[in-house]
Amino acid sequence: MVLSSQTGVTNEWDSPMFREAVKQFEHVAEVMNLDDNIRERLSVPQRSLIVSFPFRRDAYDTVDTVLGYRVQHLLTMGPTKGGIRYAEDVNLGEVAALAMLMTWKCAIVGLPFGGAKGGVCVNPRELSRSETQRLTRRYTMEIIKFIGPDQDIPAPDMGTNEHTMGWIMDTYSTHVGHAEPGVVTGKPPALGGSVARREATGRGLVSLIPPTAHHLGIKVEGSRVAVHGFGNVGQYAALAASEMGAKVIALADITGAIHNDSGFDIEAVREHVRRTGGVADFPDSDVLEPSMIFELDCDFLIPAAIQGVITEENAPRVKARVILEGANGPTTQKADVILREMDVFIVPDVLANAGGVTASYFEWVQDLQNYFWSESEIVGRLREILNRAFSEVLDISISRKVDLRTACLIKGIRRVESAKLARGVYP
Ligand code: NAD
């Protein structure tokens, strides 16, 4: 089958999110005059695996058939790297789009990985701990030939966490016959996980607030922050922002949205979430209509939940001066255009949430060397890598008169192009 070089999209991966990812790539390829052969090659993932497997519920007579995916977008740069998400509506196209985004993200911050992503179609909130463990171990078996420390290294994403990674590590290690901590990142420190990995995405994102504020002339102290999603990324982003002196005035998650103009005590909200499962009904707060979080008057809006939440419909009502994309793909392309015209400064996902994969890279390096770094070394190196990438893409954005997302993608795609041209075509 020959792909259409016009669109690069075939029916295999077609989904709204994959179409968006390819459209974004095509736009940047045009701006940077990317080699046509490479353009076509990069517009589809290199490997896509769909698995179905039996999953026994706690009620021992029920066996569900579950679908799972693992997509490796690019094998040119080194092993592939990317999270695994558990969500009811996950599909091949979504996973492929996220794998492509991971390729650009790794290249932007200069990590020796291509992009990958995985997913299992399941509602993680409905599963008991033992069900999650069984599901994870069986999914791992289904993809075991495709993962490994020098092949493809999963990490947590939506609906998965360090326990999930621990079970993947254990299943993989049991099958290869020795402990192999480098097969996943984001696992518990007791299994070779890295300190500061759990916090890295949210904290890394917030480490870009000072240079962004400096560039735009915003005072960080007392600035107003709204966070959509209060899971791993959202919680640490909110915590780091308030530690920096900003006021987190609104929070939302799947249970609802809350508002307090004086700023939340984030530790208290985290405690409430641990107890009740969500931010809803937190005392000392006003109830906010969840969709209103995108329209609040604030300095920094941090979408940190799911994709496609800032759309052409709500974008015209966004009042934030800066959007720091913690989630992957939270802003649709039509919304992106509208926001650019409104002069809203967007720090795109491929850079803003790259702290997670950067800390994962540190974890993988430490596992391979069996030598572990201190928290301050990790935090310092993380900040340095993200801040350097930010300043490089800001320069590209200014010199080429393009928005930051386009500048990021130019940097990442150029790096991939150089590697592909240097390796050539086999045979
Ligand atoms: P998580 O599962 O820990 O948290 C997700 C949060 O979003 C929860 O608070 C949940 O209640 C909320 N949420 C889910 N659906 C929602 C909805 N429809 N409306 C409002 N809130 C909703 O996930 P996470 O790891 O924090 O990931 C969040 C986003 O960040 C995802 O897009 C993920 O791809 C991206 N990301 C995560 C990492 C990481 O290291 N965890 C790294 C890079 C990017």
Brief synopsis:
It is built from 14 helices and 12 strands. It is of the alpha/beta class.
What is the topological layout?
Layout: H1 16-31, H2 36-42, E1 47-56, E2 63-72, E3 80-87, H3 92-109, E4 114-121, H4 129-143, E5 152-156, H5 162-176, H6 197-206, H7 209-216, E6 224-228, H8 232-243, E7 247-253, E8 256-259, H9 266-276, E9 286-288, E10 300-303, E11 322-324, H10 333-341, E12 345-347, H11 349-352, H12 355-369, H13 375-400, H14 404-423
Parallel strand pairs: 3-4, 3-5, 6-7, 6-10, 10-11, 11-12
Antiparallel strand pairs: 1-2, 2-4, 7-8, 8-9
Bound molecules: nicotinamide-adenine-dinucleotide.
Note the gap between the termini: 18 Å
Nearest-integer average pLDDT: 96
Q: Cα-atom Rg, whole angstroms?
A: 21 Å
Bound heterogens, unique: nicotinamide-adenine-dinucleotide
Q: What shape does the CA trace take? A: globular
Strand order of the largest sheet: 9-8-7-6-10-11-12
The biggest beta sheet, please?
7 strands, mixed
* CATH hierarchy: architecture of the largest domain: 3-Layer(aba) Sandwich
Which CATH class of the largest domain applies here? Alpha Beta
Low-pLDDT windows of residues: none
> How many individual helices?
14
CATH topology of the largest domain: Rossmann fold
Number of strands: 12
Percent of residues in helices: 40-55%
CATH superfamily of the largest domain: Leucine Dehydrogenase, chain A, domain 1
The domain tally reads 2
Structural class by sheet pairing and helices: alpha/beta
